[in-house]
Amino acid sequence: MESPPLSRFLRALGKVQHHLHTMIVGLSAVEKGIAVKPDDLDISWTAYDLVGSVRETRRYMLRTTLIFAAEELNEYAKCVLRYRAIVMDDKTFPKHRADRIRALAEPDVVDPSYLSVAPLIVSHWRNRIVHRDSKTRLSSAEEQRLRLESESVRENFKNVDVARLLQDFEIDRPTLKDVTVLLAMCIRFVKQADSTLPPADTPERVRRWLEADELLTKILSIEKESINRGCSDARRRGKQFLLTEAPALAEPYYAHGICE
């Protein structure tokens, strides 16, 4: 069973992938010269060098995709770590994005272990794009973990060249293969990290997940309002709210409720 943050992560990253593929298809039409600006589109667009324009736009698109992917990874990590903190009554919380990702799962828990490096690359790459003076990088152990498994990576992920991927990361020149492989590896990493989490199958766990998702106060308010109005089904409105805000929690909440 997917945790609430995993469900949200997969849905969001699926959209990111779809938008990337849609833009790539559109750019291929621009490069071939068969794409034209509609007369009713009120923008200025003239491409004297189609190949050059497409190359620059593709790089922009790929860098933007890395930023969105990094944000989704960060949101997933924050929610999971908040849940763990609630369960263990632990107030410590990693300050940096990369440390939050590292806290999700130890490399020896992930199979293959090199999957744990991909979300770190995405996170660091995002920082370098957003903050021009950022020097964030993999540790020597993390880079070595990926390099030592270069043949396995090549066999399992579209014949990607690890050395080339790391070089592209260093010079901020992402390729379509770099980005699609990193996204695929991130999804596998997150799914494995998520498999260690308990499902929202008891009132106590539902409450913890709502608190981790920062929705508990709202749900309690909805329940109280429903009860005050004399509603026979106090959870119905809460379920409708969750179908929009946290779909994976809607049915568990309705079935189990929230412990006091």
Which terms would index this structure?
12 helices; 260 residues; mainly alpha
Helical content (DSSP H or I, runs of 4+): 55-70%
- Radius of gyration based on Cα positions: 22 Å
Largest beta-sheet details: none
**Content of β-strand:** under 5%
Order of helices and strands: HHHHHHHHHHHH
How many strand units? 0
> How many distinct helices?
12
Q: Could you tell me how far the N terminus lies from the C terminus, measured between alpha carbons in angstroms?
A: 25 Å
- The secondary-structure class comes to mainly alpha
Shape: globular
Instruction: Look at the structure and give the mean pLDDT.
Output: 93
Low-confidence stretches: none
Instruction: Provide the domain count.
Output: 2
Structure overview:
The chain is an all-alpha fold and 260 residues long. The protein has 2 domains: 4-194; 203-256, no CATH class. 68% of the residues lie in helices and 0% in strands. It has helices spanning 4-31, 50-88, 97-104, 118-130, 140-148, 150-156, 162-171, 176-194, 203-212, 216-228, 236-245, 247-256. Helix 2 packs across helix 3, helix 10 (216-228) packs antiparallel against helix 11 and helix 11 packs antiparallel against helix 12 (247-256). It is globular, with a radius of gyration of 22 Å. The two termini are 25 Å apart. The mean pLDDT is 93.
